[in-house]
Specification:
heterodimer, A: alpha/beta, FAD/NAD(P)-binding domain, Enolase-like, domain 1, 25 helices, 39 strands, about 20% strand, disordered N terminus, B: mainly beta, Rieske Iron-sulfur Protein, four-stranded antiparallel beta sheet, 10 strands, about 40% strand
Amino acid sequence: MNMAESKNMRRRLVLVGNGMAGVKTLEELMKIAPDTYDITVFGAEPHANYNRILLSPVLAGEMTLSDIMLNDEAWYAGHGIHLHLGKRIVRIDRRAKRVIADDGTVADYDRLLLATGSNPFMLPVPGAALGGVISYRDIADTEAMIAASSTGGHAIVIGGGLLGLEAANGLRLRGMDVTVVHLMPWLMERQLDRTASGMLQRSLEERGLAFALEAQTQEIVGRDGRVAAIRLKRSDGSIDELPADLVVMAVGIRPNTTLAESCGLHCNRGIVVNDTLQTFDPAVYAVGECVSHRGASYGLVAPLFEMAKVCANHLAQYGIGRYQGSVTSTKLKVTGIDLFSGGDFSGGEGTEEIVLQDAMGGIYKKLVIRDERIIGSVLYGDTADGAWYFQLMRDRQSIAEIRDHLMFGQNHLGNTGHQGETRAASMADSAEVCGCNGVCKGAIVKAITEKGLFTLDDVRKHTKASSSCGSCTGLVEQILASTVGGAYQPADTTNKPMCGCTDLTHETVRAAIVERHLLSIPVVMRTLEWRTPNGCASCRPALNYYLLCAWPKEFTDDPQSRFINERAHANIQKDGTFSVVPRMFGGVTNSSELRRIADVVDKYRIPTVKVTGGQRIDLLGVKKADLPDVWRELDMPSGHAYAKALRTVKTCVGSEWCRFGVQDSTQMGIDLEKMLWKMYSPHKVKLAVSGCPRNCAESGIKDVGVIGVDSGWELYVAGNGGIKTEVAQFLCKVATREEVLEYTGAFLQLYREEARYLDRTVHYVQRVGMEHVKARVVVDAASRGDLYRRLLFALQDERDPWVEIAARTARPEFEVLPL
Amino acid sequence: MNVNASAGVATTSKWRSVCAVTDIPRLGARVLRTDDGDVAVFRAEDDTVFALADKCPHKGGPLSQGIVHGHKVACPLHNWSIGLEDGCAIAPDEGCTRSYPVRIEAGVVYLQL
């Protein structure tokens, strides 16, 4: 380190181990605090950071080494990171805070990050040190296997786990005769039950692999210093000898703790860390396969990334994140074989299983359930729903209500915009996945592999797929899962931070707003230590809504934190003009309103007049500067068609005119709309009221749907007719008009108080469950009354924004500056 | 007085007074109509003023109507983030809109158009 740098006041961070976990930590650190440290990296391998997960496709000849590089040397240089490749750290002097490499290079640190990974376990049998006996761990091993396979011959893979089978498949594809030797009675016994494993074995045998199960390796027989054969003991005690030109040991990995132990850090199988990834020396952190966290070590990439995020947070001195362990899932990366397993699928006391088996079709699915929650899953042949089951398991979501169709998968995948496709694997590269942004499958796969993407958010940022309406999210997740394999982990929606400006979840932020009586966005950001000076376009509208909901009449509304539509009280169109939808309660209008509309259309040369899906009239192409005059001359209330608010209450004609009608649905719709208009909410809210079970108002796909029956009214909630069609669920039946108003109001207030911003009622109810909603709105009368009162309080004396703005003399926000 | 560097716009055009800084809402924008099209004049929370052609490089959305955060604006049409200093999209998005030099004297905003 030269003098100029040592004078630099920046603290020094040294990373030992240039693999995925360590470098991911640096990437996360760069995102949140790029200037905190002067960073030095030591890597024992001569390569920059590559995607170890994809070594198997390289071995199989499906990818090349350059395809799997994650960060090339230019990346380090571009971030001002000192990179030492091919240098192994041999000593850590914790007192002097210094590391020493095998070539004598020395680096001082203020914080040290250990990411030394793991070592393959070599069976201690005679002949293990012979030439041609290798492990399967890094680029060098992969290259050795590719070289050995070029002359053909016999390969023996010891170990029938994930890695062993991927190695065996790769060697077979490269032309070798391959036998897998496995000690246990079935393959991948830690990830698969016997049935799925049997199906896997048959399909691998069809590809030309041979298996020796329940076979113990006794000796590797050599000739002239090279491997020549392998001697096995079978379960019946007999001894077999198989010819071998190459032996690959894939019997497991051990956390590499040699360096940590040599400097006296506490290790117990792995380097012991707490929930902040700190070791027993507060200046030393550790991440990745080398650590032991709450007694567990992880060999899959997803947990390593979670650790990286938390560790970066603490290195950046934010001190918020906690790593609480991971639930892992596995996917075998053998092209043409679909296999997924996650969680605990071994069953046992108190568990039940749902099994679907189609031996001819090559499909097997098993879900293990305890207390109405998925605790494990094994899928073979059809893994499309693996990510969904895994998400349900991770979120500990109750499956009680979806149990009867759980096995048939997440049926709403690909509802609209992608030709009804629900299986990404069967789609051609040219098939359109995202109908909003015109992204095809091939483009997504290309971005994932070329740019090294691992998360849904990454894919959205780079390709825009599923970033608009989100209906193709399931398909994009499938593509991600099948492309990155075991590295894929569905987003943790339970603990997901609001946005990049904070590590706190929506729920934590809302609770703080209520408990600490926070009344404005700047105060929230100061109190909760926002990372950015004034948030972003994602968190500011959410915070403004949370304040509005928690402290109506008290909070400081911030128009600049509302989306333009709520600032201009009209809907922005693609050409920058706006649309105006005047309110017609219950969809009822009259001749003088229609006459005024016609006059306004003529006077302001409004190009398009259209009837909306919600039974209102839409005036399109209004210039922003004309909006206040248009509102004043219409002399009708704001329709709030631009807001996250009550939009419309759609009605059928009902008993007043209809010969089938049994209730006055039009009047009920007017009453509901008069109560609820001006109600802001996490997302738009649409209601419908039908006067008989023929349901002409389509109450079955609304946030609240009311259906009149002879003896009263049935209430349905959480329906949706948009992106994914969701049928509303029955809430309860009531007798009177007053009850319809109270139950509807209470449900909507519960949604307002508990849903995350931009969640529709359907998303909210899916998350909390219908039981919870019924308990608060139907069963507990006191709770219902409180909710209803809070809603009425929030709506009391709220003013119509159109009337208010039209009455003002100065309206600079609607006017352009003259030059 | 603060001067934001122009994005290499070679111009002989003049400085024109536009409005007072306080005419622009903090974390907001005003639109200036010119012969060359609309110009969005932004005011960040720190009272720095920026001027960009009022057209997102993506699909021409009016940036003046977006949410301003830090020295960035989110386009109201498809939520691209555009840097106020240079008019360029934040990676991984790509594209730039024209930016204009801004000068503030005695609380008055001048643009070089």
